[in-house]
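Quick log. Single chain, no ligands specified.
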Amino acid sequence: MRKFLLLSFSVMLCSSLFAQADKVIAYISQYKDIAMEEMIRTGVPASITLAQGILESGCGQSILARESNNHFGIKCKTEWTGGKVYHDDDARNECFRVYASAADSYRDHSNFLKNRPYYTDLFSLDPRNYTAWAYGLKKDGYATEKDYPKNLIHIIETYHLENYSDLALAKEKNPNAPAANYALNNTDTNKDITTNNLNATATVNSSDIPIPVHSEERKMRVAQTMVAMPSYPVSVFKINDAKVIYAPKGLSLMALADKQNISYHRLMELNDLKESDIISSGELIYLQKKSKKGKKEFYLSKYGETLKDVSDKEGVLLKKLEGYNHISSTEKLASNQKVYLRSDAPGAPKTIEE
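-> predicted structure:
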């Protein structure tokens, strides 16, 4: 089924890229807890719920989300006895559900998937396998757009939403454990997921994702998500099988090393950093050695990025990236250059002339 997704043009058009990213991050921060609670209650992966909420509600900026607390565009159906509102969608004047709160919308979304027979097969999937879930939703008729799974996967991978599914699973196993310890102490929840019976690809690059064309609102919303900056969990998580933590601006690396029970010198070595104690801007700090190879073949650069930036984002040793791509770690990359993560590049990527 298609979803009603009428967004405020003035909000979207007036937002800078930074403001757009800020909205996505704020949305995740606001709703991650209810998404994890719902995963524990019903089994719907928190990563999928958050990605759908971001996409369907335009980060909470759609008219349905703002005026009716409906973050997933769910229509009334015959069984609905709650509040109603009417908007044009597939047909004129269609009925959509109205909720008392956004949390009620999240709970109803979980119930909608859990209790309808045509989604039953989803709950036999590994809840960490967001790729299979994304393609399963499309297969079972949740959305008619052919690129709906790719859009969900891109959002999840851009914002590392899979970590919230890991945290929910860890919390379910040990409800009394401190939240900050979930990802660190339950590393079995961070295993690589192999795609099963849906023949879904494991990784989707943002450049490969066509923007759906059925509405201008959807084009704008997906474009917003594609360019927004990623957010990271507040606790230890994993990138390419290595433990990492996001360190905000101003954090003392010496204090971080002490807290994580690792020597300051070793922390500097793991992160290719020079002797410096204060984080000048937010960055990923690795607590374990990065891998020699990446999870995917290549990374598409953003304007001005360096191999150090790519090394941090993809969890690949900086020296290996220099060898694969035949440039130094300090050279700034041009836009949309293939940075090879697993093998020698056929040629060096284009860099920016200073």
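The first strand starts at residue 83 and ends at 87.
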